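Q: Sequence in, structure out?
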Amino acid sequence: MLCRLRVGPAQLITREAHAAQAQSRKPVATCRIRSVLHARPFLSILEHHHTALKQTVNLVILAVKATGLDQAINSMEGLVGPETRIISLLNGVTSEEAIAARYGWKHLVLAITQGMDAVFIDNALTYSHAGEIRLGAAAQTEAGVVEDIADLLERAGISHAVEKDIRRRMWAKLMMNVGINQTCMVYGSTYGTALSDGEQNRCLVAAMREAKAVANAEGIKITEGDLNEMISIIANLDPNGMPSMAQDRINRKRTEVALFAGTIIERAERHGLLVPQNRWLLQRVHEIESSW
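A: Exactly. Output:
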């Protein structure tokens, strides 16, 4: 989903969001939606938006999967003006670079989401933890942009925190995804089974430690304490839930493995590091995807 919001009452341009708002009589941003039926692709939403409104907006939130990022960047062109703020909630540590290449860094912030356990299968969305947004400034982000977005999130009732070192938080989240997301996809497992003693847990921790080593080589100070913190976050999620890549396996959709093992392998090669667990995970994910 790619959304636009105006500074003021939050407005999400999706049919589902408007329906939820009408039913609950509460701001869309605070609605707890337990199921979504016949979810529409973000591109059709944007096409409708371009046709109906044809005007720039104050804030663009990218909440698409990595496989839809390029299309989203192209489609949002009509929404972005000289004062439009942009925030990406995609996994990984590279989406902002792609966005900045088109729209610049001035009004773009760095962000991640964490702590949610949403499962979307057969057009039904369920969760027990809504999670939160962590955001912060990039080196070239203009002063006040992070505060503007944080203020809107606060007024909309969306859990968030401003990070002084957001890149470190992004790499910690990447380390977590490299472990839990890929392991659950390859083994077809849940949060609970991946954290149980055995082969899956060994795979998860080994992949995370490789990511930690790569982060350190990139100048990001990720520690064993950060690894344990990420595992604690996973342990607090619904043990019967599963991350996005495991859901992709069930739904037979292309995964974001390029953002996880792909990034770790590419950065490891820059620094002459060996990352055998991530290479194995990348190979297994591609084998599973090719079998569909």
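The domain at 167-290 is CATH 1.10.1040.10 (N-(1-d-carboxylethyl)-l-norvaline Dehydrogenase; domain 2).
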